[in-house]
Model the fold of this input.
Amino acid sequence: MPFYGIGMLSKMVAEEVPVILDFQAGSEADAILRVAGLLAGDPRIKDQQRFLDAVFERQKISPPLLGNGIALPHARTPAVSELVIAVGRSRSPVQIGEAEVRLIFLIGVPPHLIAEYLAMTSSLARRLRLPGVVESLLAAPDAGAFRSLLGAP
Done:
């Protein structure tokens, strides 16, 4: 399913994105694995271990951080057949690279959907930079409210 801009981001978030709220993690790897667990069994992931290996390899190079306590660990890999995303909110900050992070957006990108990935992450970044959005996501009482806040136009 291709994603283009905030309209598709809103649809994807409202309908598909698994969310885990207030998880505990002792490390960057633990936090990423907790969020990745939401994608276990997802048919768009052809090889879960290859996907995770690619994510952790990318993290070694330079952890993608958006600022304001947000990380976007991702991998461009043939281990996924379509764009996949899972979101986690940690109960307390997790050290990722040089930042303390509470919101993690884990993304898998197949090589043939780079343009769609860039459009989706650009829309996501714009949404997360709007005043009050991050604070509202951190206070969301449940996954449904979280998705609504994230996907609202």
Q: What stands out?
A: Residues 79 and 125 are 25 Å apart (CA to CA).
